[in-house]
Write a structure and sequence with these properties.
This protein is mainly beta. The protein is globular.
């Protein structure tokens, strides 16, 4: 493990690592001594090795046959998070060890998985563009339609472009037999008139014979947020969820047909829109005097408020006996449009349009993608028990651009990426051993037309062109099951992603550039090596993994001191990490779970120098410890008490990239009471102790306008009734 820069932070990291290891070992020891060997299915949703996941494997596969760290965030965990906040990524920060702190905003800038950008999917459909990482893909639907979240940690090419940090697949709910309707309402407040928020959502599911239907809709109205000192939180430059409205509509209709209902056809439609209400304008903070950014009543700059507008249509077909195997085919189209808050910064100015210093403008990113994904899986290949073959091909076409909307200027020209990627994967169960290996061939082309940069970047002409990406991406792994309860794995995998192409294109400020000669547009190839184990006893579980990932031409982010925009730095990136999880059920009514994550990312200070520059919080999260206590204190009542700790960290002292982030522990509490026929009531208390703190990514920034405090205590009352 790489040593921290300072002795004090190194000692702290070792102390907390020892505590976390001790917790997991204590869990194992306690289970060995326990006499109660009953399993508790409801609690084991997230760690049961018999659970089945689809992400990264296409065909269902048990977790203890996958050579890697996988997590399933259960429906119960999603609902518990929704009782505290409508933030779409908060549940990941609380339940996934390597996922960084939630930004509590519309932007998810700085939210990474194991120090790299993850590929977010909704029912297998990408919510991010490989061409322009907008940091907005965390808000694309209402979490009320999500039945579980499947997370494959670490680089993977299994689902295509963009999974440098892993895959996060949000899976929609599945209707149960008969007709079922649920109505969910939620009210939240921080004790001030303009902090109130509310939500109403209705979900209808029907399943009869060979047909099933799921229809869900919701409306969310959010008020202003306050920090622990009662001060309004600022309007983040990349977008905020405060003072906004969100509407969601989701429809999924399926039918089984053919002999023994072996075939299935399903169509799904998702429409989501989150738009700012425009009642506040931001006031820049003063970092030197620790005065955080805030907001006041007033009309924001410009004439338009920010939004996320995500729409997708998918058609799926499956055949469970197609030439002796299972065929899956998905065709989809996804339109994703994002508008950012208006700004009057130097990079928005143009003297041909207005006197310098007076021009206000705001950017919009538009991404349209369409594609299809296929797989064919057959077990018992060549009549060999346990030998499984999976083959398929994925195709996608993505067109993305970024414009300065108020003046209709090109900021990032239209970029078109088309890819065809065949793959094959073999796995072989030989008794207690599972061997797996495969290869994916990424064949893509990026085309950019000629364009002229903005005034701020000297109006230089950039000659368009086409870049071809050809990469063979192998993977290999093994899993050995020592007992029914204990398994260990080792794996090697490669991930393929494009850099945030829009950033280098819009920042060109010297003549003579051609698109096909820009080094920063070269792909990111990540090599990942990992070992780990999973153990599950009758009433306890534990897991651990150690991983090392390396990219010869990786990406790290810094902030432009003039514009406040991100600057993309290309160079080698090496990331090492440890993840630990553990749980123990004292009884059916009292259960404890815990997690720990330690990540160290390094790149170079100077080109071709040693990799001795620690990567900051915009890329790599500080050490994290999470704990959750479940207690059913009455037959119809229970509570969840959660604690999330981020440890203090100081890196690169006295050098470029110096950064200090302060540690903190936040407590959350939710209490549920089931009234029976009148539904379920839930009281939620986010940031229970009303702690005042600065968001980690704000501490890592140098900009005054991003000196943001986190939310103080939020009180929520939710009601759910099903009939």
């Amino acid at each position: 493990m790489t040593n921290p820069i300072s002795a004090r932070s190194g000692a702290a990291a070792r102390t907390h690592l020892s505590m976390a290891v001790g917790l997991v070992l204590a869990t194992v020891a306690a289970s060995a001594a326990a006499q109660d060997a009953n399993t508790h299915a409801a609690h084991q949703d997230a760690i049961n090795l018999d659970n089945v996941i689809v992400t990264g494997t296409r065909a269902p596969k048990a977790v203890d046959r996958i050579p890697g760290a996988v997590s399933i965030v259960s429906l119960q965990e999603v609902q518990n998070s929704l009782s505290l906040t409508e933030d779409a990524t908060a549940v990941l920060s609380r339940t996934i060890p390597g996922y960084s702190e939630s930004t509590q905003a519309l932007t998810n800038s700085g939210e990474t998985l194991r120090g790299r950008i993850a590929l977010r999917l909704f029912d297998g459909i990408p919510q991010t563009s490989p061409l322009r990482e907008t940091n907005r893909a965390g808000s694309f639907t209402d979490l009320g339609v999500i039945g579980r979240i499947e997370v494959v940690n670490g680089p993977s090419a299994a689902e295509g472009v963009g999974a440098a940090g892993g895959i996060i697949n949000y899976i929609s709910k599945t209707p149960e037999e008969g007709s079922h309707t649920s109505v969910n309402t939620r009210w939240s407040t921080q004790g001030r008139d303009d902090s109130d928020g509310w939500k109403v959502g209705v979900t209808f599911g029907h399943k009869e014979d060979a047909y099933d239907l799921l229809l869900a809709t919701s409306f969310v109205d959010r008020g202003m947020a306050y920090d622990g000192k009662g001060r309004k939180i600022g309007m983040r430059g990349s977008g905020t969820i405060n003072d906004s409205e969100a509407k969601n509509l989701f429809l999924k209709l399926g039918t089984n047909f053919g002999e023994a209902d072996m075939q299935r056809l399903q169509v799904s439609v998702s429409r989501f829109n989150l738009t700012g209400k425009g009642n506040y304008t931001g006031v820049i903070g003063d970092r030197a005097n620790n005065v955080t950014s805030t907001s006041v009543h007033g009309t924001p700059l410009g004439a338009k408020t920010e939004f996320n507008d995500f729409n997708q249509l998918a058609l799926s077909y499956s055949h469970s006996d197609f030439f002796g195997g299972t065929l899956l085919a998905d065709a989809y189209r996804a339109d994703q449009h994002m508008r950012y808050p208006a700004e009057d910064g130097k990079d928005r100015q143009d003297p041909l349009l207005a006197p310098l210093g007076t021009l206000i403008d705001q950017s919009e990113v538009n991404s349209d993608k369409k594609g299809f994904r296929t797989s064919w899986t057959r077990g018992g290949l060549f009549n060999v028990d346990g030998l499984e073959l999976r083959v398929g091909v994925d195709q996608v076409k993505d067109t993305t651009d970024q414009r300065l909307a108020l003046t209709n200027r090109v900021w990032v020209p239209p970029m078109e990426y088309s890819s065809s990627a065949p793959y094959t994967q073999l796995s072989w169960d030989i008794g207690d051993l599972t061997l797996s290996g495969g290869v994916r061939r990424e064949s893509g082309e990026l085309h950019v037309d000629s364009y002229t940069t903005t005034y701020y970047n000297n109006r230089v002409f950039v000659e368009g062109g086409t870049l071809k990406y050809r990469q063979t991406l192998p993977n290999a792994g093994l899993v050995y099951r020592f007992t029914d309860a204990l398994s260990a794995y080792a794996s090697y995998s490669e991930g393929f992603s494009l850099p945030n192409v829009g950033i280098p294109l819009r920042n060109i400020n010297k003549p003579g550039y051609k698109v096909d000669g820009i080094l920063d547009l070269q792909p990111i190839i990540v090599e990942n090596k990992e070992i780990g184990f999973n153990w599950r006893g009758g009433n306890a579980s534990a897991s651990a993994s150690y991983y090392r990932s390396y990219s010869e031409l990786g990406v790290s982010l810094s902030t432009d001191p003039v514009t406040g925009d991100f600057v993309m730095n290309r160079g080698p990136v090496r990331i090492n990490g440890i993840e630990l999880t553990g749980s123990y059920d004292f009884s059916d009514d009292l259960k404890l779970s815990a997690l720990y994550s330690h990540i160290v990312g390094k790149t170079w200070f100077t080109k071709n120098g040693p990799l001795d520059k620690r990567m900051g919080a915009n890329d790599v999260s500080p050490d994290k410890i999470g704990m959750n206590l479940f207690w059913r204190f009455a037959p119809q009542a229970d509570l969840n008490l959660g604690a999330t700790t981020l440890l203090a960290r100081t890196i690169n002292q006295g050098r470029s990239g110096a950064e200090h982030t302060s540690g903190r522990t936040l407590l959350d509490l939710s209490v549920n009471y089931d009234t029976g026929r009148f539904g379920k009531l839930t009281l939620g208390l986010e940031n229970l102790l009303n702690k005042q703190y600065i968001l980690t990514t704000s501490e890592a920034s140098n900009a005054n306008d991003d000196w943001m405090a986190g939310r103080g205590r939020v009180i929520s009352l939710s009601h759910n009734i099903a009939f």
